[in-house]
Amino acid sequence: MKKNTRTHFMSSIMIVLFSALFLLIAGRFLYIQATGEVDDISLEKWAEEKRTASYTLDAKRGKIYGRNGMTLAYDRPAYRIQAIVRESFTTDPEDPKHVKNPEKTAEKLAPLLDAEKSYLLERLNQGIEQDRFQVEFGSAGKELSQQTKEKIEQLDLPGIRFKEQATRYYPNGNFAAHVIGYARKQDKALTGMTGIEQEMNKKLSGENGHISYERDQYGTKLLDPNEVVEEPEDGQDVHLTIDQKIQTLLEDVMAQVESEYSPERISAAVLDPKTGEVLAMSSRPSFNPNKLEDVDNWNNNVISTPFEPGSTMKMFTWAAAIEEGVYNGNEWFESGTYKVSDRVRRVSDHNGGEGWGSITFDEGFARSSNVAAAKLVWEKIGTEKYLNYLKAFDFDEKTGIDLPRERKGKLVYNYPRDKITTAFGQASTVTPIQQMKAATAIANDGKMMKPYVISKIVDPDTGNVTREKAPEVVSEPISKDTSDQVLDLLGSVVSSKHGTGKEYKLEDYSVAGKTGTAQIYENGSYLTGYGNYIYSFLGMAPKEDPKLMMYVSVKEPDIEVGESGSAPVAFIFKNVMQKSLHYLDIDPDKESSGQVKSIELPKLAGKSVSSIKQNLTEKGLSVSLIGSGDTIKAASAEQGDKLLEGDRIILLTSEPAMPDIIGWSMRDVLQLAGLMDLKVETMGNGYVTKQSIAKGTPLKENDYLGVELEPPGFIEEQQEESDEAAPENSNEEQQ
To answer: Which residue range or ranges hold the PASTA domain (predicted)?
Structure first.
């Protein structure tokens, strides 16, 4: 009886527990059925999400164009190689879908991927051992070109397939690389890292869209999929002020100087002083944004590298004195050395303090006298007023140029020695673009212009201009009369018998400019030794009404003892300025037997090849004929365009075939590519030494053309001409 009572009691407890549990579970089900929620999550919504596929629709990144419409950056398809290594993926042994022979696959792929066979084989074997479905080959297997993909496909290797992805491509290699910058994948999206790519990243990127639809358990879209599509908004196109021809001239000449003199650094820029538009800008060392391995210099030195500029600063010192009304160019002073007090170290002229005896202040400017500059600030202008002029020229702030990572120099103006040495370009630091901006006031009747490189932004879908830049006058630090007087003084630097800038004379244009030889401050002291300077020139032409301004600096060129340190600077300036002025059809203001003629093109399309070719050749153009037809279908320039003697023009007829382009410049290659719609890839800079398409091969649209370019050495005639033009002791600060 006792046992039965205990059993009944325990049974009752179990019944109660199971009843409670049943009611709890049943209640939960009833609650879920009634509310359709679990833990505040809607089951209907959760089921919908589980059966809904959603994908991002990538926006196309906008293109970057030059002043002449040349494409400088655009998205192009690239490919990532994948190797399927799981054997079960093959259903028919006669038609294998996986990598059947890893060693053979690695051997065939190695030369096309520019990778070691052992590395590829190791990746394949690891995938097989780890029972992975597929493997990739790291950086060696990414961003493959269409040409490489096609070559691999021709090998017919089992298990090899490709995944398409967008990559940023720069068809002109290191052309204006520091201005254009580069973009790379970040968080699955192309992101601008430097240059215009970074500055205009938001405009270029656009807005991604997306697509979503409901699917079944096998991933198949339902008959009523509730599809939602939000179209992507493609990025906008950015047009630059960079001129194709002037930039190419600059790149080619800088490549020659880099090859010949192996300098530590070169910085150069060309702008229109009337508008502030930057027509060309380049730095050395440079880089190819398509190949970012072993980049030595990410900085755009023109805007990001402040340094003590040397005597180019003297033009602003003289401008301040003239504007202040305290300058008398015919007043005499004793050159050589100058000491303001016993507690301040003396200032010496650049010829070791020897000077040139008693000379006028005008002659002191032409000779680049440090003593004259120091006396003007200390005795005539006054140090505080001079500081006000430095600030009026905006040397204490950034220029505001539309490029990222601009840095400003620093006005070091605490002690008397700082104040007087700033007058001739020591102590205080500035960037090249700060100097150019300030110099626009001298070239532009006292109006100082804001420099810029972006001309407009265009919607690629509608062609509408969404934003357009216009010249902006920042301020007027000096008057027109002062600017005229300073231009005359700058002209004397180049043209007078005492001038330090005789090397910078052009054949048929007058030049106004100022030389600079800046000491380099490192580890607490100035460097010594021959060539351990930054040689520079800031010049403009024609002198009476400057249309172009150019700044060039070369740091520590490898020059021979006795060779002028300004020789590489003059080589760059003269070549680029002379040809650019003619290219822009600026009327020469000097008589010269060596004047380069400008040739206006007649109508070409539809004309006879023989007559046009003879006519253009007689006028001095280099004519390249593409095709075997008798009638011109198209040309690399149009009716009314003006070319210079020696320029190449390409005439296209029927049945075009690849010409021999060895010796062509990059600009010539780009013209050929534009005319034939070729996909061109340039490696190096200068002139073509190798071409991927053999001479005589039939050409068609979208053919790939790879070229290798190398800089030539200096032409012997140009070296001799430069040596003859260099006067004795012309280097203003030989020490």
So the answer is: 653-711
User: Does 31 lie in the same domain as 105?
Assistant: no
Domain count, the chain: 4
The SS3 of residue 327 is: coil
Look up the domain containing 21 and give its range.
Answer: 2-49
More confident residue, 210 or 707: 707
Name the residue type at position 72: L
Indicate if 88 belongs to the active site.
no
Percentages (nearest 5) of helix, strand, coil residues in the chain: 35, 25, 40
Torsion sign, CA atoms 663, 667, 668, 674: positive
Distance CA(360)–CA(328), nearest Å, equals 9
* Dist. CA 682–CA 688, nearest whole Å: 9
Phi and psi, residue 165, nearest 5°: -150, 150
Torsion of CA 258, 259, 260, 261, to 10 degrees: 40
At 681, the pLDDT band (50, 70, 90 cuts) reads confident
Looking at per-residue pLDDT, the higher value among 223 and 616 belongs to: 616
Task: State the distance between the two ends of the chain, measured CA to CA, in whole angstroms.
Answer: 125
Does residue 690 sit in the same domain as residue 639?
Answer: yes
Co-location of 114 and 10 in the same domain? no
Non-local CB neighbours of 198 within 8 Å, separated by 6+ positions: 181, 192, 404
> Which of 490, 551, 568, 509 minimizes the C-alpha distance to 270?
551
CA distance 672 to 653: 13
Rounded Cα distance, 316 and 441, in Å: 10
CA distance 388 to 395: 10
Q: Where are the alpha helices (DSSP H) in 2-42?
A: 2-35
Is residue 428 located within the same domain as residue 491?
Answer: yes
One-letter amino acid for residue 244 of the chain: Q
Task: Give the CATH number of the domain where residue 160 resides.
Answer: 3.30.70.2110
Instruction: Report, in angstroms and rounded to the nearest whole number, the Rg of the chain calculated over CA atoms.
Output: 35
Q: What angle do CA 607, 609, 615 make, to 5 degrees?
A: 90
Q: What is the mean pLDDT of residues 378-395?
A: 96
Query: Do 466 and 236 contact (CB within 8 A), yes or no?
Result: yes
* Arithmetic mean of pLDDT over the chain: 86
Q: Are residues 84 and 45 part of one domain? A: no
Could you tell me if 190 and 206 are in contact, meaning their C-beta atoms sit under 8 angstroms apart? no
548 in the same domain as 401 = yes
Say yes or no: 533 and 667 in one domain.
no
38 and 81 part of one domain: no
Single out the residue in 12, 30, 49 at which a domain terminates.
49
Q: What is the pTM of this model?
A: 0.77
Q: How far is it, in rounded angstroms, from Cα 196 to Cα 227?
A: 38
**Exposed/middle/buried for residue 41 (C-beta within 10 Å: 0-12, 13-18, 19+):** exposed
312 contacts 537 by C-beta, under 8 angstroms: yes
DSSP class of residue 631 equals: B
Report the DSSP beta bridge partners of residue 106. Answer: none
Q: Which of 311, 348, 428, 492 is catalytic?
A: 311
Least confidently predicted of 288-297, 372-381, 412-421: 288-297
What mean pLDDT comes out for the span 35-51? 61
Percent of the chain exceeding pLDDT 90 equals: 53
Cβ 492 vs Cβ 360: under 8 Å: no
